[in-house]
Structure formats: C-alpha cells, structure tokens
Design brief:
Helix content is 32%, strand content 20%. By secondary structure, it is of the alpha/beta class.
C-alpha cells in the first residue's frame, strides 16, 4: 500500500483498526478533500468541487465532510486555507482582500466536530514531511508556486509558525528593493511578484496571460518567452539559494501549479543554482518536486491529527 496513492471507491475494508481524518483544502475557486489513513498517509477517498461565493463554499465544506466521513469514525477535520490562523486553530484571523467571509469564521462551531485550521502552505509542508518526499527529514523548506508564492519551514522536526503564525511567508522576501511594485504585504520586488502566476501579464508586457501560456511559448523557443521565463527562474534560484543560506535545510521542496512545468522549470533552476548556491565542501541541497501536488493542502490538513 503506497503512501499517497489515490484509491477512490469503497474504503470500508481499510477502517477496522486504523485512525482516519478528513482534510479539506479551501481555495477561492475549488474545494478539495481527502479521507486520510493517518498511519500510512493512504488517501482512502477524495473529492473536488468548484466554488464561487462564501455561502457556496461554506455549504460545500459541510457537504464534503458528510460525503467523506459519512457514518465512519474519524478523529477530526483539518481545514487548510490562505491567511493567518487563529491561536485556537478554529478560524483564519487575517486574509485581507480575498475570500470574503473567511476571516473570523469559526469552523468548529459550524461543523460541530473537532476542527484544526492551518495555513494552506503550512499544510503542504506538513503533508510532505509526514508522508511525501521529505518524510523523516528534520529541516525542510517548501515553496508553493502558484497564483502567488507561499511557503513553509520545518525546523528541528517541527513546523515553524512564529509570532501570530506569519512564519513561512517566504514568497514575500524582497529580491529587488528598487522594483516599482509592492506586493500584498508591501514588499517591493518580492519573490511572489517575480515568479507568481498573478503577475505573468505584467512581467511579459501583456503578451502572456498565465504561466501555462508562457511555458508553452518557451518550449517553442520563442525568444521573448524564453527571456521572461528564464528571468523568472533566475529570481526563483536566487530566492532558493538565499533560503538555503539562512536555514541550511536537508531539502527544498517545490509545490504548486507552476511545478507542472516539470523539466522546463527544474532544469534551468538547476543551472542557476549551480551559479548561486553556496556549497561548502562540495555539498548540495536536494531540490524535489512535492509528492502530493494539488492534494498537498488537504493531506497536510488531515495530517495535523497524526500525533
């Protein structure tokens, strides 16, 4: 029974002597959920639905919990969402400008079950160190490359959240202090703005609408697309090399939708890291693609109960 394998269907046979938890990943347009076997990381069942407004995703969460859990005994419900998590882990306390109705909403009261809310990027690294490519490692950095850039820090075997849960927002490091734009945290020239999907149109002078379109043009060896894409990866490499210097991790994990570019991302990233990474005594830090891909948030949300 391989870790992280999706086995949708009749899962009653797995539940006799196993603890399971429900994990949900709540995004602005999609809700993803898993029923996770906590010992092995086996995904016993999974669901995904499209959502739009606040009332719709609140109702969708309740319906998905009923579908995944039913009458089965689960130890709790983990919810991954963007923003800063409340101290009691029952709500998101800060998510300005996105997902109206999320801030301050108490999920435990709403669902009537034991709930643990976690930042979505923190959930992603929790999935990888429990069951994925970073399993059993003590010091791991993860970047989630998507619309924006999220992150998680695993130090000395524990998730580092810092004061008010802000730790891990590595997408908001500044790589160009003279950049004319500031990101949502007021940082100029942030890693998020220099590679995130949300700024592709700006970075390409309006020629490409998103990363998928940009990478397709890069693969066709279009000169302008090649310049834009490689410039973006150069910035990513500088950010990764900086994080390696600061945290000295065992591994850097990359997740999120941009990693679907596969070799078009990882090959040039390797080349730039050959230039930028400090390698005392010849040692290099392993860079790996996340195992759980788009399901990492849901898996990590459930993995909070793996204690």
């Amino acid at each position: 029974m391989a870790d992280g394998v999706l086995v949708k269907g009749n899962f009653n046979i797995f539940l006799m002597n196993q603890q399971v938890a429900i994990g949900l990943d709540l995004g602005a347009t999609r809700l993803k959920g898993v029923l996770l076997e906590l010992d092995t990381g086996q995904i016993l069942n999974y669901e995904m639905v499209e959502t739009k407004d606040a009332d719709q995703w609140k109702a969708a969460v309740r319906e998905m919990v009923e579908k995944l859990g039913g009458s089965k005994a689960y130890v709790g419900i983990g919810i991954a969402a963007p923003g800063l998590t409340a101290e009691n882990a029952r709500a998101i306390t800060c998510m300005p400008g996105r997902m109206e109705g999320l801030e301050g909403f108490d999920w435990q009261d709403f669902l009537g079950s034991t709930v643990k809310v976690i930042n979505d990027a923190h959930a992603a690294i929790t999935a990888e160190v429990n069951y994925g490519v970073a399993k059993n490692l003590k010091n791991v950095i993860m970047l989630t490359l998507g619309t924006g850039v999220g992150g998680g820090i695993w130090l000395n075997g524990k998730l580092h959240t810092g004061t008010i849960g802000r730790g891990g927002h590595m997408g908001h490091m500044s790589l160009d202090v003279n950049h004319p734009q500031r990101d949502i945290t007021k940082i100029p020239g942030s890693l998020e703005d220099l590679i995130g999907d949300a700024t592709v149109t700006y970075r390409s002078y309006g020629r490409y609408k998103d990363t998928r379109e940009l990478v397709e043009a890069y693969r066709k060896q279009e000169p302008f697309a090649t310049w834009v894409w490689l410039h973006s990866i150069r910035n990513l490499a500088a950010g990764v090399a900086s994080l390696i210097n600061i945290f000295s991790p065992d591994m850097v994990v990359l997740g999120g939708g941009i990693t679907s570019a596969e070799e078009s991302l990882f090959k040039p990233l390797e080349t730039f890291l050959d230039l930028f990474e400090w390698r005392p005594m010849g040692g290099t830090v392993t860079i790996r693609k996340a195992h759980f891909a788009e399901w990492s948030g849901a898996v990590g949300a459930a993995a909070q109960f793996n204690v």
